Amino acid sequence: MSRYDSRSVDPASYRERRSDSGFGGSSNYRSGTREADGSQPQRKVDLDGLIPFEKNFYVESPSVAAMTESEVDEYRLKREITVDGRQVPKPVTSFRDTGFPDYVMQEIEKAGFTEPTPIQAQGWPMALKGRDLIGIAETGSGKTLAYLLPAIVHVNAQPMLAPGDGPIVLVLAPTRELAVQIQQEASKFGASSRIKNTCIYGGVPKGPQVRDLQKGVEIVIATPGRLIDMLESHNTNLRRVTYLVLDEADRMLDMGFEPQIKKIVSQIRPDRQTLYWSATWPKEVEQLARQSLIDPYKVIIGSPELKANHSIQQRVEIISENKKYSKLVTLLEDIMDGSRILIFLDTKKGCDQITRQLRMDGWPALSIHGDKSQQERDWVLSEFKSGKSPIMTATDVAARGLDVKDVKFVINYDFPGSLEDYVHRIGRTGRAGATGTAYTFFTAANGRFAKDLVNILEEAGQKVSSELVAMARGAPPPPPGGFRDRGSRYSSGRTWN
């Protein structure tokens, strides 16, 4: 019985999963009693020995119930919400409609939020109903709380942890930085109901993490590799996990974590609730979701096509490789006003070289990348967030999950290896409703990305230079030195498109 919720279990919230896929899940989404492809229903799973648990906590408020279908459609259209699935609940338009217990509402009020973001408005009722969920939304959209607040309700409805129990909620994240930021939110919003959590990631001593696990924690936020180490050394187990979150699932696949994810998920009970959260929806993630989700809801904020945050002004300069550093310095002279500036490079060596060069030239720069120790990475992030070092160079380790609220400028010194990474990089600015500017150095070697980059710029209503359009059509790049408006200085900003 719940510690904080007296509602009884809704038997309809239970569902079976196939376990013969090697991933603890089914090979197809389920819809009602038939497969999505029209074949016969999947066979039942033997859940003998598994204690039933509560996971359907959603009670529709009278004001939401009173919404007509046309009002729902209008709300979703206005907020660019697209939904799919069986019996999709109506969105909640205010916090009072969520049905969250008082201990959650107090934390929301304390945080000063005024209304749910689109992903929260539609994602909260979906997650609270106990069904599997696919959530796709751009970075900075509030998706962390979209799964954490239902997770807190879920935890408080389960029996207390017994000695030797593992967590009830497991959140998998691709990077240490994202995992730490998720933990900060979990600590803030779980404090009122005394929910314990820990963050499990590599690059730091295992001792403190082991002690947390042995004491017992309801929520574990983890990167896949270190979690597997903890499982194999029997420092924890996943037998009590009933709420599983994969955050930035696309990034985890990009980083080669699919085998580890499958290994972890295979150890979790098959009737769990699983939530996939991502900013993009590539085929690889869709395939993984098909293997592990049953009868899921799907919510997309904005277009399912790759697009950039419209709050970010994007400026692209076609430039030769050997002119990059001088352009960078000139740009910094123009925009440096004490705000945070994040500079992305492709390689760790490049990060260190540019940082060293900037510091020799008197710029307050530090770098962060995968070869840094966790202690050094934490220190660099702290210096950057505090403004003591307002310039930070980084590899794609910081492209996702880095949530520094006042990053005003992002500079792509090197163009990334994919358009998805471009969108995530520039998404480090313009977060939580703020505006920002992203500058990108684009060379002849990046020409294969020109067409898709033009599409992203046009979709976001950005000005696109004729030179970039020409490259997108297969024309050779302009002469070395880049392009500029006749008679204008680079530092005026008018050369940027």
From TrEMBL:
<dbReference type="Pfam" id="PF00270">
    <property type="entry name" value="DEAD"/>
</dbReference>
<dbReference type="InterPro" id="IPR001650">
    <property type="entry name" value="Helicase_C-like"/>
</dbReference>
<dbReference type="GO" id="GO:0003724">
    <property type="term" value="F:RNA helicase activity"/>
</dbReference>
<dbReference type="GO" id="GO:0003723">
    <property type="term" value="F:RNA binding"/>
</dbReference>
<protein>
    <recommendedName>
        <fullName>RNA helicase</fullName>
        <ecNumber>3.6.4.13</ecNumber>
    </recommendedName>
</protein>
<keyword id="KW-0547">Nucleotide-binding</keyword>
<keyword id="KW-0694">RNA-binding</keyword>
<feature type="domain" description="Helicase C-terminal">
    <location>
        <begin position="327"/>
        <end position="472"/>
    </location>
</feature>
<dbReference type="InterPro" id="IPR011545">
    <property type="entry name" value="DEAD/DEAH_box_helicase_dom"/>
</dbReference>
<keyword id="KW-0347">Helicase</keyword>
<comment type="similarity">
    <text>Belongs to the DEAD box helicase family.</text>
</comment>
<feature type="region of interest" description="Disordered">
    <location>
        <begin position="1"/>
        <end position="44"/>
    </location>
</feature>
<dbReference type="InterPro" id="IPR000629">
    <property type="entry name" value="RNA-helicase_DEAD-box_CS"/>
</dbReference>
<keyword id="KW-0378">Hydrolase</keyword>
<feature type="domain" description="DEAD-box RNA helicase Q">
    <location>
        <begin position="93"/>
        <end position="121"/>
    </location>
</feature>
<keyword id="KW-0067">ATP-binding</keyword>
<dbReference type="GO" id="GO:0016787">
    <property type="term" value="F:hydrolase activity"/>
</dbReference>
<feature type="compositionally biased region" description="Basic and acidic residues">
    <location>
        <begin position="1"/>
        <end position="20"/>
    </location>
</feature>
<dbReference type="InterPro" id="IPR027417">
    <property type="entry name" value="P-loop_NTPase"/>
</dbReference>
<dbReference type="InterPro" id="IPR014014">
    <property type="entry name" value="RNA_helicase_DEAD_Q_motif"/>
</dbReference>
<feature type="compositionally biased region" description="Basic and acidic residues">
    <location>
        <begin position="32"/>
        <end position="44"/>
    </location>
</feature>
<dbReference type="GO" id="GO:0005524">
    <property type="term" value="F:ATP binding"/>
</dbReference>
<feature type="domain" description="Helicase ATP-binding">
    <location>
        <begin position="124"/>
        <end position="299"/>
    </location>
</feature>
<feature type="region of interest" description="Disordered">
    <location>
        <begin position="472"/>
        <end position="497"/>
    </location>
</feature>
<dbReference type="Pfam" id="PF00271">
    <property type="entry name" value="Helicase_C"/>
</dbReference>
<dbReference type="InterPro" id="IPR014001">
    <property type="entry name" value="Helicase_ATP-bd"/>
</dbReference>
<feature type="short sequence motif" description="Q motif">
    <location>
        <begin position="93"/>
        <end position="121"/>
    </location>
</feature>
